[in-house]
Structure formats: C-alpha cells, structure tokens
C-alpha cells in the first residue's frame, strides 16, 4: 500500500437538530490524521434512545435495524479506505466521503471540497435562481408559485415519512418517488388528484437532475420513474351554456364582473394570468381594414398569442373603459385574484344553473372548442391563438366533435358522389 494512514469512524447524535418530536439525526464523522469530514447517515432516533458511551441505539423498536445500518456504513467506509490507500499516497476524509457517497473523488489536482446541499437546500437554491429569472421577466411568476408549492409538499412528505426537516441527496432512492406519490395521492389531507401528484414528482425529478448536473449525486435515482398520467378530458361548455351566462341578469356587482371576465376568456382563450395583465397596449390594429386584435406574449410559455377582437369582446372592453380599477391599473378588465375569481365562478354557476363547476381554465377549453368545432378554424390556427408551443398541447384542449366531422362530410361528399348518391367515376 502507498499509505500508512489510519482511519477513525465516529457516530454521534446531533441533538441541536432535533425536531418537534425530539428525534435528531445520527451523523458519521470520518477522521484521517487529524482531518475530519461528516455526513448524515439518514437515520434519526429519539434523544432518549442514543447511548453516548457505545454510540449505539438502545430502547427503540428499530434499534436492531438502525444499528445494522450504522455497522454497514462503517464496514463500507473501511473497505473504501483500504482501496483508496492502494491508489493514493494521501487519502483525505473528503475523498473517502465522496467515494462512499458515489460522488466524484477529490484527487491531487482538485483540492476543492464542495459543500453538498441537502434536498430542501437544493430546492431553495433552485427557487432563488428561478426568482431571479422572474425578476428579469425571463420566467413566469405563476411557475415560481408552483415551485414554492412543490417545496411545501416536499416538506410535508419529509416530516410525514421520515420525521425529518431535510434529507441527504445521497439517501434518496427510487422508492422515494414511489412513497412521495403515495403520500400525495393517498395519505395527504387533502389528497391530490393523479395528474397533480405526478406534476410534483416531475418537479422533484427536475431538482434531482440539477443535483446530477452539479455532480452532487452520481445519477438521478428517480430518473426512470414514469410521470405520465392520463390527461383528464375537460369537457368544454356548450355554446348554449355560454349564452345562458352572457344573457343572465345579475344584480350582484362582484359576480357580474366575474361573469364578464369569464365570457371575455371564452371569446379570447386567454388564461387567467394573461387576462389579468391585459391593457390597451395589447390592442393592435391589423390589415387594410384596421381590425383590432389582442396580441400578447403568454406569461407561461412566452409564445405570442393573437386573437381578433370579436364583437362581444369589444363590447366588454367598452363597458369597462371607465371602470375605476381599470383606469388606475391600466387594465382592460377588472379581474380578481385567482383564488377569489374561481370562488366567485362557483357562485356564478349556481346562479345561472349551469349544473357544473366553473373555473378560469374551463373558459380556455371552451374557446378552443368553439374555434375548432363551431367556427371551423384549423387546429393550427387554434394553437396559434392559444399561444401553444406545439400542436400536441392544443389537441388536449380541442377535441374534434362528431358535428364537425358531419358538417365537413356533408360539404365534401359531392366530390365522391353525384346528386343521386352514385359514386362518381373519378378517372374520367
């Protein structure tokens, strides 16, 4: 062997990190010739269950399991240390730690000891980086809210499953994603629906991709976890439902304003975030007829969406041009916060006897359906008006109905058949 160094391994209880239930993490300290490195063993025990003299867990139903895990860590460290001594004259604690955790090994040409964040620390790093992009208007503030929501759910899961405030990246295995999904979809109160739960797993996967890219983990342990989920088919409102909403006399001002905003969405296809920020600056006059269009970059995708202003939309813009809120904030429509908007939409549904819940996103689906199946726009045109990046997304919004197929068939069958219904001789 090239080295005659000696290794000391110590397990200790980090009482200062005890949670509300008095459970604290067990830390492993590696010492080689006076130099130290530490890492979490991913094991937690109650303050009363750690024996300071023997450095073992006692009096716990999990004593045998945890002590076995600690013995395994100690054995693995000793084996890796022996291997490293055959290759290097000077083995450092950080080298041994990185090899044990499957991180890139420090060598003579790279003496930088990098602090490896834990999962929530990494999540905070990503959120802070994303917030900077939002400030520069390179990312959507709504997406930032979603990342913060993901962090909240990870916090809930760690406390529920591990009784921990954070977890080492190296401790995360494939089963972490499975347990996280089960927590979100089954055990959490309130539980998330399948697509929403899968979205959280997808976000977690992105965070671990960042860890892999920074060499904090050798490989994303949940990379193969499939986040696919059947897209729930959202049935748009029929045109007669839209008409019922529009013609209903509503005496409650806040509900009337929400109704008008929803109708505005139904005839423009703009998402909540985009209608909320619409101003006169987004009205562009196009062509020799000087026709007014709404042209705006979508907050979510940064793709430009452009929609001709239909008469009903023009009427609403005129109606609110002198509204106090619209004048002060330079808005086309007075729109509530997203929460209030959707709460009031539920009231609107009851008042108008629609028979189903209304929400701001339903208006977008309704617009797509009207454009495709009522006004017979092509899917490509609808995609452009919705500001989608690709047509596959549009296909989830706008389903081709039998009525559209029937209308097209009636218009086209004369190509194949004569007035008597006889098949034409197409080769003459």
UniProtKB/TrEMBL annotation:
Residues 230-410 form the Tyr recombinase domain. The keyword tRNA-binding does not apply. Keywords: DNA recombination, DNA-binding. Transmembrane segments: none annotated. CDD domains: INTN1_C_like. Coiled coil: none annotated. Belongs to the 'phage' integrase family. This is Tyrosine-type recombinase/integrase. It comes from Pedobacter helvus.
